Amino acid sequence: MSIQEGLNMDPRIPLYYQLMQFFRQQIEGGQYQAGDAFPSENELCERFSVSRPTVRQAINELVREGLLHRIKGKGTFVSAPKIEQDFIQKLMSFTEEMRQKGLKDSTRVLNLKVASASKAVAAHLSLGMDESVFCLERLRFINGEPIVVVTTYLPQKNCPALDKHDLTNKSLYETLEKHYGIKVCRARRILEVEAANEEDAGLLGVEEGEPIQLSKTVAWNQFDKPIEFSIARYRGDRSQFTIELRR
Predict the structure, then answer these.
(1) For 95-118, how does the pLDDT look when each residue is reduced to its tens digit (9 = 90+)?
(2) Which stretches make up the HTH gntR-type domain (predicted)?
(3) Domain with 111 in it
(4) pTM, rounded to two decimals
(5) Which of 92, 162, 192, 202 has its Cβ near the most Cβ atoms within 10 Å?
């Protein structure tokens, strides 16, 4: 099948773009379901009579958009629809938000220890250098799929026995309010994009170097005191964030 026969598009448009649009139509039209293996580069080159760089560029664009994803050693697969994250507009815990959406969340606590606050952490939490903080690292899942790795810092003086609580099955915010009288009342978040390092790639099930969405949060309590600084690293292929603007 030639590219003209297969796509019937204006030949002045770059071939990779024509392919990308054709693949997108197939995916969005239901010819492929989430989790389906996508044809290999060799198959697509032969089918459309185009070069491997052309096919690879088309696929790379769809991977960046999140319609496709790669699994090392296995190939390219059709992605499930991205999970809408509303935390830019609403202040709620991850657990609360996912349950409101009818999704099943779960948590694996990777580490919970007391450490001395670094210069950056101390600045975010208005602490003195080397004051003690809890460092909580968690891997959060939605419907059994790893979605985000979160590292959270909290002043130890505010929640001295936090390490005695079950944070695998209980919300951190609920635990802070119930046991320490701490209500999270406002937060500031900064979003960035970076490449997944080896550790994050392994935890999130993506390839090293793939884009991940980085969120840095500082939260304040009912007395307008900073009580949490966290860094969350979301899978770029499974998450999207909504920001509503009004004038």
Answers:
(1) 666 666 667 888 999 999 999 999
(2) 13-81
(3) 83-241
(4) 0.66
(5) 162
